[in-house]
Specification:
With about 140 residues, the chain is α+β, with helices and mostly antiparallel strands. The chain has a single domain (about 10-140), classed as Nucleoside Triphosphate Pyrophosphohydrolase. Helices cover about 25% and strands about 45% of the residues. It contains 3 helices and 7 strands. The protein has helices at about 50-65, 115-120, 125-140; strands at about 10-20, 25-35, 40, 45, 65-80, 85-100, 110. Strands 1, 2, 3, 4, 5, 6 and 7 form a 7-stranded mixed sheet that branches. Helix 2 runs antiparallel to helix 3. The longest helix is centred in the last third of the chain and has 19 residues, at about 125-140. It is globular.
């Protein structure tokens, strides 16, 4: 019998970005979750049987109000959350349409240049995703 505390919590999210109106590079969307008072990439738990990419795009829209065009798959993060293993699948995703309205989960979002986004992220593990996004965008541009 499997101990439910050993079964990873499955989640998914995106490093949401948009083309900057003022700078040469992208702007990255960070969400503020008042429950945890932290800044992170939009993400959330998957529903039973939900495809990770579909879940990631659903969470982005629920938390930020933006629809997104998915890009490259980014690294999956593994860590403990409340004593349970958690795995979060991530994708690069470009914001397409929509707009933010505060909700129960997210009270604020910020669009920041990559360097500022890395500094604002609460968890160090989330910072490597910014670097992965930039590498993906460079690769796409140079291809």
């Amino acid at each position: 019998m499997t101990n439910t505390n050993d079964t990873p919590v499955r989640a998914a999210g995106c490093v949401l970005w948009r083309r900057s109106r003022t700078a040469a590079g992208p702007e990255i969307c960070l969400v503020h979750r008042p429950k945890y008072d932290d800044w992170s990439h939009p993400k959330g738990k998957l529903k039973r049987g939900e495809d990770p990419l579909a879940g990631a795009l659903r969470e982005v829209e629920e938390e930020t109000g933006y629809a997104a065009a998915p890009g490259a798959e980014l690294p999956t993060l593994h860590y403990l959350a409340n004593g349970r293993p958690k795995q979060v699948h991530y994708w690069a995703a470009e914001a397409t349409t929509g707009g933010f309205s505060p909700n129960d989960e997210v009270d604020r979002i910020l669009w920041l240049p990559p360097t500022a986004a890395r500094l604002r992220l609460t968890q160090p593990r989330d910072r490597e995703l910014v670097d992965e996004l930039l590498a993906t965008l460079r690769h796409a541009r140079d291809a």
